[in-house]
Amino acid sequence: MRRIAIVFIVSGLYSCDQQKSVNSETPALYDSSYKTAVFTDTSRLEKIKAVFPVIDSLYKSYAAENHFPGIAFGVVVDGKLVYRGNYGYTDIANKIPVISSSLFRIASMSKSFTAMAIVKLRDEGKLNLDDPAYLYIPELRNVQYPTADAPPITIRHLLTHGAGFPEDNPWGDRQLADSDKDLMEFIGKQISFSNPPGIAYEYSNLGFALLGKIITNVSGKRYQDYIKENIWLPLGMTTSEWEFGNVAPEKLAHGYRWLNDQWNEETPLHDAPDGSWGAMGSMITSIDEFANYMALHLSAWPPSNAEDKGPVKRSSIREMHHPWRFNGMNPNYKYPDGRVCGIASAYCYGLGWSRDCDGRISIGHSGGLPGYGSQWRILPDYGIGVMAFSNRTYGGTGYVNTRVLDTLIKAAGLQPRQLPASAILEQRKSDLVKLLPAWNNAEASGIFAENFFPDYPIDTLKKYARELYVKAGKIISVKEMKPENQLRGAFIIEGVNINIEIYFTLSPENPPLIQEYRIKEIPKEKAFAQ
User: Fold this and answer.
1) To pair with 258 at 20 to 30 A between CA atoms, which of 119, 376, 507, 515?
2) Domain boundary among 411, 431, 465
3) What is the mean pLDDT of the segment spanning 244-258?
4) 288 inside domain
């Protein structure tokens, strides 16, 4: 690897050693009292297992209806592969059945491994995500941008499909066998841009090929080897591969195209040993091994004080999951069961993100190449995820995965993790209850931030509280705290006639003090469940 001795940035010059020190981290101090969200249903796994026959039926029916020669699928719950299923053949001519260890090319599902490798190199202090990409691929220094005011392409632009390159499916699929020499010659002939960098989302296989080249240049080894050594092997992914020729014939899922009412075997697209295009989509793996990778992603949630055992930090995985670049909104999105539920979507680092009208957050990625189609998706708040691989050209499995996840949640009655109230929220709740409704000596209580009484005059506080308490009648109970986070939440005071909701937020001081407060009537039928 050629070492870059001096880095030019807007604020001046600094060496790579200095750059590394900027990224290096000291051990974090943390609050051992931090409350982590938990599942409150102790029988959730048993309820999930009861739905397995339905899940099996959904996948097998979908495979038959869409002419998949074979399909492999799996369900991951709380970091474990709890169900796996298979249908059809990996090799039609020899009637070799699909099993959970069969190796499928997963196409663009490879992108998150490339992104994870980049983030790991960042964590090691070897690059910065907002660095211009030309610092690591010098050939990019002479790229002609579409406008004079265009910023240089950064690594983050490449990670989030924001470099300004045009959407390049299916052209990019046919570049897998190109060498890095071919890639550099392609850059030398100038790249055609659809937008200036940084202003729009547009899916780019070229961008991830460049990330593969950055991994190679920065790590000093082929990106394939860096990912295998630093991600696959620590996760027990020992049979995963990049190139068809390295897979035992009896393990490989052959790829087929459904054409003229019959399956036609596709010519394999080989991965160049000296090329970076495979970073966008040449990975080959199994349900058994990909489950370990899904478990790593699920382990990043919720944030906690548990030991960080992964090959990549949990905080970095959560950074990968962040919706960095908005790419769509569909207010009329329709789930497979027919219900309409609006959804917003964005791109993360090698991953897609969505949030629907019910607040469900989904993270994952699809893949498609001649001979193959696949998708994986996790719902971090629910601790579950599904994956499905097919060996039919662009045989997508996103629709059936969505249906399976939705069915799981409804049939098993799953609820997301619940956040317990922090000790300070409970304390401030108790403090408030003692003051209400009279607010006697409130200003001398020491529980309110300095802004509180200027923002909430004491006479007004007393007036509203007394009116609602009179309307409520006899107080029956004070319900439990419902936190939004460690320093914000609400609780219900239950009256004979009406309920009263108290909402408050705490300041960043130590100890935190009440800075915001709201009190309102909640009719009995609308009071949130306790």
Assistant:
1) 376
2) 411
3) 96
4) yes
25 found inside a domain: no
Is 324's pLDDT higher than 70?
yes
- Which tens digit of pLDDT belongs to each residue from 155-198? 999 999 999 999 999 899 999 999 999 999 999 999 999 999 99
Same domain, 187 and 248: yes
The pLDDT confidence band at residue 10, using thresholds 50, 70 and 90, is: very low
In a domain, 28, yes or no: no
CA distances for 505 relative to 189, 436, 444, 472, 489, angstroms? 57, 17, 19, 24, 7
- Together in a domain, 379 and 441: no
CATH of the domain at 247: 3.40.710.10
Length of the chain: 530
Determine contact, residues 279/125, Cβ cutoff 8 Å: no
SS (H, E, C) 59-126: HHHHHHHCCCCEEEEEEEECCEEEEEEEEEEEECCCCEECCCCCEEECHHHHHHHHHHHHHHHHHCCC
Do 217 and 109 share a structural domain? yes
Q: How many CB atoms lie within 10 A of CB 200?
A: 15
Question: Are 66 and 211 members of one domain?
Answer: yes
Q: Which two tokens stand for residue 78?
A: 């709380």
403 contacts: CB under 8 Å, gap ≥ 6: 58, 335, 336, 337
Structural domain range at position 323 = 6-16+38-259+267-305+312-411
How many C-beta atoms lie closer than 10 Å to residue 485's C-beta?
Answer: 12
Both 467 and 329 in a single domain? no
Q: Which residues pair with 74 in a beta bridge?
A: 84, 387
pLDDT at 336 over 70: yes
The mean of the pLDDT values for the chain is 94
| Pair 343, 453 in one domain | no
Which residues, at least 6 apart from 325, have a Cβ–Cβ distance to it below 8 Å? 160, 161, 162, 201, 346, 347
- Count structural domains, the chain: 2
Q: Are 511 and 424 in contact (CB under 8 A)?
A: yes
The yes-or-no verdict on residue 272 having pLDDT over 90 is: yes
Cα–Cα distance between 99 and 101 in angstroms, integer? 5
Q: Do 406 and 435 fall within a single domain?
A: no
Q: Alpha-carbon distance 50 to 412, whole Å?
A: 8
Whole-number pLDDT of residue 29: 83
Tell me the per-residue pLDDT of 62-89, one tens digit each, with 9 for 90 and over.
999 999 999 999 999 999 999 999 999 9
What pLDDT is recorded for position 6? 32
Helix (H, G, I), strand (E, B) or coil at 514: strand
DSSP 8-49: EETTEEEEHHHHHHHH--PPPP--TTPPPPB---TTHHHHHH
Task: Report yes or no on 26 lying in a domain.
Answer: no
Question: Do 149 and 10 share a structural domain?
Answer: yes
Which of 365, 383, 411 terminates a domain? The answer is: 411
Give the burial string for 453-483 (b: 16+ CB within 10 Å, else e): eeebeeeebbeebeebbeebeeeeebbebbb
- Whether 3 shows a pLDDT value over 70: the answer reads no
